[in-house]
């Protein structure tokens, strides 16, 4: 058995060059995902910490350099299917303009690719820094509604325990002195995410037992949620005791940041109580391992990784090419035998972002049924987006939603919207590449799949609305269903449905 002088991966030029090439190629191939994530890191206070995650992870890896023997580099090609899976997810993210997919794929690919390069034995020694890279993913805002409800529930319970008279209406909490809203900023999402990141890092640096690490990370997850409910309770209690002279306006924000600092201090204090008081025996640093043919393995990995990335990069460019604006997109002429002349400013005010063509009007034979259509040819904007609205939410609110049985399409919903003095029936469906689809998620998946296959031509949405009155509500629903059933084919034919 031959032995080699111990060298770390930082001393091996070929490993360093391979890692550098891996990182550069990662930036080039995943550029869209990285830059969109960077925009979120900079613009959102919730994710400012992400700017330090990747540099921090690399620094943690550097601190382990004495344990990263270059002689142990042995690429693990069993991870190649996972890398290919990340690239497929990224392709879906490009085609569907789903930023979460872009970010997940980009920031999963990097640590797994490093793992694949150095092999299981060395990856195990830097497993936390590799996993720490995943904190770069700007994910967590989806928990805001849940945290708002949880904070409101727990703060109301504490107010009841202390005998303060309250009235709760959704996320509004009223006391005799005034009203408080558990808004998104009060959800504690910033506390929660920062606490999880700091708690995980503290457990890695200061604790050695897996049981202690898991215990402390669990505390780091639960503690900010409980503390935020106490914070909201304290703000309301302060407003109650001071007749709303304090804990409102700027005071609210100041108290929040002061409380956040206190929460982190308490969390770290708990960590000091939990962590081991004695350092475990260190592993000798001068062990010499059998020499492996690491240079040949590194070169082979570099060729394989580069080839896979090049193939997918070409595919990504082809997908992006379909999404580029096309000045030659055809015009759309509506059938004036079915639809009236365009009438802008519909009462219910549907709002779709930058459609290539937009129609607002009514049916010729039934003027009281409004019609709205938005058309997005290939490369001309995004039909299904959280920014698009079927009614102006400042003036209208959802009353009911129920199935609307139709002959040509299943899954269509009938929505009733109301405001202070009006009530309307509303329904909609999508036409994706000539196919009728009711559900927006199915429509998005169909559109994305067709883009991936290069078969996408255009997407459209059609919405109909009719006024109704409480006394005629049931009969209006029957009439509305009949008219939608009669016109769904003619209206959809404007967009290639046959």
Fraction in beta strands: 5-15%
**Overall radius of gyration:** 29 Å
Low-confidence stretches: none
Average pLDDT for all residues: 84
Rounded to the nearest angstrom, the distance between the terminal CA atoms is 74 Å
Tally of contiguous helical segments: 14
Shape category: flat
Mind describing the biggest β-sheet?
Answer: 7 strands, antiparallel
Question: H/E order of the elements?
Answer: HHHHHHHHEEEHHHHEEEEEEHEH
**What would you call the quaternary organization?**
single chain
Extended strand count: 10
Gist?
By secondary structure, the protein is an alpha+beta fold. The protein contains 14 helices and ten strands.
Structure description:
This protein has 498 residues and is of the alpha+beta class. Helices cover 49% and strands 12% of the residues. It has 14 helices and ten strands. Strand 4 and strand 5 form a beta hairpin. Helix 1 packs antiparallel against helix 5, helix 4 runs parallel beside helix 12 and helix 4 crosses helix 13. The model has no long low-confidence stretch (mean pLDDT 84).
Which key phrases capture this entry?
49% helix, 7-stranded antiparallel beta sheet, 10 strands, 498 residues, flat, 14 helices, 3-stranded antiparallel beta sheet, single chain, alpha+beta
Question: How are the secondary structure elements laid out?
Answer:
Layout: H1 13-29, H2 31-43, H3 53-63, H4 80-96, H5 99-118, H6 120-125, H7 127-132, H8 144-161, E1 167-169, E2 172-175, E3 178-181, H9 189-206, H10 210-241, H11 250-274, H12 294-322, E4 357-362, E5 370-377, E6 397-403, E7 413-418, E8 423-432, E9 435-437, H13 440-452, E10 458-467, H14 473-492
Helix pairs in contact: 1-5, 1-12, 2-5, 4-5, 4-12, 4-13, 5-12, 8-10, 9-10, 9-11, 10-11
């Amino acid at each position: 058995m031959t032995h080699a002088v111990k060298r770390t991966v930082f001393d091996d030029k070929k490993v360093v060059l391979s890692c550098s090439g891996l990182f550069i190629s990662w930036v080039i191939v995943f550029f869209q995902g990285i830059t969109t994530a960077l925009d979120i890191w900079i613009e959102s206070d919730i994710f400012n910490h992400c700017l330090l995650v990747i540099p921090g992870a690399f620094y943690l890896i550097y601190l382990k350099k004495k344990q990263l023997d270059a002689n142990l580099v042995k690429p693990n090609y069993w991870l190649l299917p996972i890398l290919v899976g990340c690239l497929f997810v990224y392709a879906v993210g490009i085609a569907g303009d789903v930023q979460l997919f872009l970010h997940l794929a980009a920031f999963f690919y990097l640590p797994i690719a490093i793992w694949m390069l150095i092999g299981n034995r060395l990856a195990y020694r830097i497993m936390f820094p590799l996993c720490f890279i995943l904190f770069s993913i700007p994910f967590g805002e989806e928990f805001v509604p849940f945290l708002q409800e949880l904070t409101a529930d727990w703060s109301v319970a504490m107010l009841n325990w202390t005998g303060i008279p309250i009235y709760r209406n959704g996320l509004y909490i009223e006391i005799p002195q005034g009203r408080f809203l558990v808004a998104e900023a009060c959800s504690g999402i910033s506390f929660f995410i920062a606490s999880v990141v700091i708690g995980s890092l503290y457990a890695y640096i200061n604790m050695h037992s897996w049981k202690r690490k898991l215990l402390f990370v669990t505390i780091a997850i639960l503690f900010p949620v409980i503390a935020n409910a106490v914070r909201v309770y304290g703000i309301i209690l302060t407003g109650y005791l001071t007749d709303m002279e304090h804990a409102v306006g700027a005071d609210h924000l100041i108290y929040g940041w002061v409380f956040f600092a206190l929460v982190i201090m308490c969390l770290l204090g708990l960590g000091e109580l939990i962590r081991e008081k004695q350092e475990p025996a260190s592993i000798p640093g001068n062990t010499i391992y059998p020499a492996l043919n690491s240079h040949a393995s590194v070169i082979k990995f570099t060729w394989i990784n580069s080839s896979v990335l090049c193939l997918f990069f070409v595919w990504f460019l082809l997908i992006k090419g379909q999404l580029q604006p096309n000045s030659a997109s055809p015009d759309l002429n509506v059938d004036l035998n079915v639809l009236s002349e365009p009438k802008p400013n519909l009462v219910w005010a549907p709002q779709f972002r930058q459609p290539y063509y937009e129609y607002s009007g009514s049916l010729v034979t039934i003027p009281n049924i409004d019609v709205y259509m938005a058309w997005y040819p290939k490369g001309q904007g995004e039909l299904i987006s959280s920014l698009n609205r079927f009614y102006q939410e400042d003036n209208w609110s959802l009353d009911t939603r129920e199935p609307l049985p139709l002959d040509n399409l299943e899954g269509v919903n009938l929505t009733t919207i109301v405001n202070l003095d009006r009530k309307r029936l509303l329904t909609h469906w999508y036409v994706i590449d000539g196919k009728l689809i009711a559900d927006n998620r199915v429509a998005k998946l169909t559109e994305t799949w067709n883009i991936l296959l290069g078969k996408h031509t255009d997407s459209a949405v059609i919405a109909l609305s009719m006024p109704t009155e409480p006394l005629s509500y049931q009969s209006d629903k029957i009439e509305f269903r009949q008219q939608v059933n009669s016109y769904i084919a003619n209206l959809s034919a404007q967009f290639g449905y046959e």
